[in-house]
Amino acid sequence: MKKEIVKINEIDFNVYSMNTMVVGTGAAGYNAADTLYDLGQKDIAIITEGINMGTSRNTGSDKQTYYKLTLSGNTPDSVFEMASTLFKGGSMHGDIALVEAALSAKGFYKLASIGVPFPHNKYGEYIGYKTDHDPRERATSAGPLTSKFMTQKLEIQIQNKGIRIFDGFVVIAVLTKGENAVGLLAIDTKNQNAPNKGFTLINCTNVIFATGGPAGIYLTSVYPVSHLGSSGIAYEAGAEGINLTESQYGIASIKFRWNLSGTYQQVVPRYISTDADGENEKEFLDEYFDDKGKMLDAIFLKGYQWPFDPRKIENLGSSIVDILVYNETQIKGRRVFIDFMTNPTCSIKDGEFNFGMLGSESYEYLKNSNALFGSPIERLAHMNQPAIDLYANNGIDLTAEYLEIAVCAQHNNGGLKGNIWWESNVKHLFPVGEVNGTFGVYRPGGSALNSTQVGSFRAAQYISENYTAEPLATAEFTKAVEFAVAENMDRAEKILANEGSSNIISNRLELQARMTGAGAHIRSLGEAKKALAECIEELAAFEVKTVTGQDWELVEAFRNRDILITQIVYLKAIIEFISNGGRSRGSYLVSDEEGILPLDKLPDAFKFSLDSGDLLKKACVISMELKDSKPEFNVDWEDIRPIPTEDNWFENVWGAYRRGEIVK
Question: What's the pLDDT score for residue 550?
């Protein structure tokens, strides 16, 4: 790596040149850099907004899952079987599924070897359990902080190897020359008051883009506050997106953002709502369930069936709880809480929880857990004390206060499109981790963590074999990117010149609220079209209407622009899906006036029809080009590629491997 200074429009800019720059310090980004180094490519660095930011380090759930090939017991399993499980989720390419399965054990064993505390028995078998959409017992966990452990252990590898991290840099553009990514434009947040506004140039042969999911596009979100995502700059650079309609949503706490799955629901807590001031408390679920035992079972089953799923709405299934929470918060404008201190009123008989009201599945689980006693918090302490400690460590005492909740965006199964080496259509740009649209509609729980390791390994492997060239000569690089740099500098100057009170945060909240209303788990064609038109209008006026209070807010303005561009692409994908006959599937409900109403007391906006499944055989690929700040879209519904069935005769593969014909 070398550092130089170049002049563009009489302004000096630092230029750092290297073979590969990794964007992001989560589990995917760290593994990409660590693997590159191990494979011999040491001319690398990492750039990040903040080492301690991001989803990998700051999120989790009751028992955060890692999904991989079965590594214990006598249950038959194979790479092809695991690939088939992933593929059956729909709208996922079979060759991607095969890679995710084939390398799952490799990625898992690396993490175990560097100290991630996955449990094994005395014979060395890494035991597993069954997770959602999982026909085997492929899931494992190191507890609620599994992804944090992964990130911390991988960070130690980076530190031991002396790989440089550019900390406090926000990337605002992917720089291209023709069809190739050739670098990045970032803002050094420590130098925003400089004449160059902190603009810093990265000249590199390859960009590994590990920026996480597009968390910032939603207001109601369980993504950590410190994580917004940076997908917009990739779409602006011409990268294609795939399956952008497919996100997951579920009930989560909002003061401290955390998924409320597993034992948080299986202890059957009390759900209440209040007015905006916390008054007028009521157990609102009671209004909709004539059979109170069904209500208690629905709450319990949220532990197993945590993500919202329209297939689990009818007959008072578990996802009716999500609908009713959304109705209270978004339609009625009330606040919703979970109370772990008190049993649901309808369950009490002679002062105690009447466990006889529960269905067999709920009852047997609590019985087998020796938890047929007490209050929800007492059952939770017995079954999972760390779940209580987690909130206590974040300033919330579940033994003494209510926990405010909402139905929140949690994970994007879609994202930037990559091939089997995780390279996008923009050559030398490798999206890895959640920013890559690896998955289709339904996926096993924990497969996302596996994907962080598989995708980052594949990108590093391909780069180390094929893209080892030096970056462009500095003069050639400067000439190729000077227009993009000047354009962004001009944008910065216009924004900083606007007078008035800062509207950076208020604008962001408005953008996020609109997306939560039109593009989250409750959708309609009309609302999506209206939201898209408003987003396009705001992007066209962005430089005129954005006001910063101080120079340091400039980077936040660029973040807002990234959010806005991402919302535009995602809303266009939603419109395309519904316009092509798509209905409720995955983790969202599409309003359909010809559909069924789950409960008579709900508004007609909740009428829905389940999707026919025809579009599970296709994936929506979308790209965008901005012309005078107005987007022009290209949309393609591509057929899903089947799982490959290769001739794996050992001698043939060995020969091809020796000749260097595999990593191509």
Answer: 84
